[in-house]
């Protein structure tokens, strides 16, 4: 089995490690036995206007449910990411921006320049009436202004809600309306892989369904042709008249920092809320430990700022730690499969942090694209978002890293704020495919279906039994849903929704979601969302969506569709339905396969038997299990016969 395959900490890393194995063990012990003292000490890595006198105050129990950290502390996130660095590293590069087009010029911003840009952006927001606690929706491409905008919100105490630029107008409208945001920051257009994304036009379309929206601030990025209306303000015009100085808003540690919408197993995406002190501490602590960050290292998290990975490891973690963070506008494989490694060479990147799906896609194009670049600056490689198959792990390690760089496979979620289970490069021997061991303060537990705690080498459902500073605090506007979603499956524990195996060395191997959530290219997709989009189509009566194995995306989207009486299935309708979902939600939700089905397997009480649908989508039709309890067992034969492969 692959867990016998061990990659010891390389000698160079072991000698110079910030945290070696003995230190990790000691830290872990201290974090669990005296959590308060441990976290109050760690809290000193931040700059507080008023230092906290207590760390965690939490309970996962129903009657007493609460999650608070450092609750008498006062600080400002932007002050921690910018102002406090000015005296020591004002002239150091804070952000390197690499454009989509390799022929265009990169941009660099020192901490001093970034500070000025953020202050200006904050003053523009203030001039538009944005105040502490207001929600600001950010729908931007991967341009420096995306970082300016979120930090500007943090500076004045506004709550940002970043919506990935790949989401449709409808998805954007839902996210604006849910948090009642009056203002959207967007750009004329985005650039990705040489193509343009019509962001401003999408906002215009969303506006019709987002009644709270009053103003749109538009950053000129491509200079493309757009229409400016009564509620639209050009950012460059507004910024011309404001000062590059803006005081920071003192924030309580538990004041909200941002909302980020994420998909769940039921209903519409929920607004995950993170607060100020605990989140920033977790971002800083994990970025420092997991990536063993040293001054001068160029750190590149190749995610989009529209996902939590971008929030924590492009912006907040690196900047809190005074790092140089690289922001890339484009795609990993454009103009060709060399691009990532060319960017590494161009900016002398020390750490690359990306998703397994990108590695699998690049691996397919062959080693030459990697070998024609030098990569001598690389020392550390990271992955996130989905389980990494050992084959992709070894390719990353051997071909990309030439055996020099450890791989940190970080397991976490939008809800967790930052990494929870991950190796430390100077402390943890690696096993390809395992996220290895919990970080300090993280107490994982495996339980069976009945909530029975499982000990030793075993597989089960992954729970976390104690709060950590970076934990989400609530679902925006729906605290009951927060408790219901995460703390009722197994009483008194946070349930992650993931299945997991623990081996004889105590290493954790995440096996994937055990709920109705699928992971497409490292992005979380609720099957219920795709189903709702499909049934909105006038010809569709019913839909059931499940995940299927996909060799690049990890999981693909497989949809079973029942048409209304009188409608006929056709190849054209199949294509049209895929386009429909793409337009309703966004390209990432496009079904990979649609199977027309005269009926879906249901129990006599009308519940769809997803277990059977999953097996058929996986092509595993020999073990469908007991189908005798179905209202109409014959539908299964039709599904098997007409499976889309
Ligand atoms: C889900 C969370 C973490 C930020 C990006 C995704 C899966 C995440 C790993 C990993 C195996 C992983 C889990 C988790 N996942 N990282 N290293 N190994 N699975 O955040 O959209 O909130 O999705 O991604 O299933 O529950 P997200």
Can you describe this structure?
By secondary structure, the protein is an alpha/beta fold. The strands form eight sheets. It has an eight-stranded mixed β-sheet, with helices on both faces. The protein has a seven-stranded mixed β-sheet with strand order 5-4-17-16-18-19-20, sandwiched between helices. Strands 22-21-23-25-26 form a five-stranded antiparallel β-sheet. Strand 25 (494-502) and strand 26 (508-513) form a beta hairpin. Helix 2 packs across helix 3 (35-42), helix 4 packs across helix 11 and helix 5 packs across helix 6 (144-156). The chain starts with 10 loop residues before the first helix and ends with a helix. 5'-O-[(S)-butoxy(hydroxy)phosphoryl]adenosine (WT7) is lined by residues 262, 307-309, 384-387, 409-414, 435, 496-498, 510, 512-513, 519, 524.
Oligomer: single chain
| H/I helix tally | 20
Helix content: 25-40%
Average pLDDT score:
97
What is the strand and helix layout of this fold?
Layout: H1 11-16, H2 21-33, H3 35-42, E1 56-59, E2 66-69, E3 74-75, H4 77-89, E4 93-98, E5 107-110, H5 111-127, E6 135-139, H6 144-156, E7 159-162, H7 169-178, E8 183-187, E9 190-192, E10 195-197, H8 199-207, E11 215-219, E12 232-234, H9 235-240, E13 251-252, E14 256-262, E15 270-275, H10 277-290, E16 298-301, H11 308-320, E17 324-328, H12 339-347, E18 351-354, H13 356-364, H14 368-371, E19 380-384, H15 390-400, E20 407-410, E21 444-447, E22 453-454, E23 458-464, E24 474-475, H16 479-487, E25 494-502, E26 508-513, E27 517-520, E28 523-526, H17 527-535, E29 540-550, E30 554-563, H18 571-584, E31 593-596, H19 610-618, H20 634-641
Parallel strand pairs: 4-17, 6-7, 6-8, 7-14, 8-11, 11-12, 16-17, 16-18, 18-19, 19-20, 30-31
Antiparallel strand pairs: 1-2, 3-13, 4-5, 9-10, 14-15, 15-24, 21-22, 21-23, 23-25, 25-26, 27-28, 29-30
Helix pairs in contact: 2-3, 4-5, 4-6, 4-11, 5-6, 7-8, 10-11, 13-15
The structure holds 5'-O-[(S)-butoxy(hydroxy)phosphoryl]adenosine.
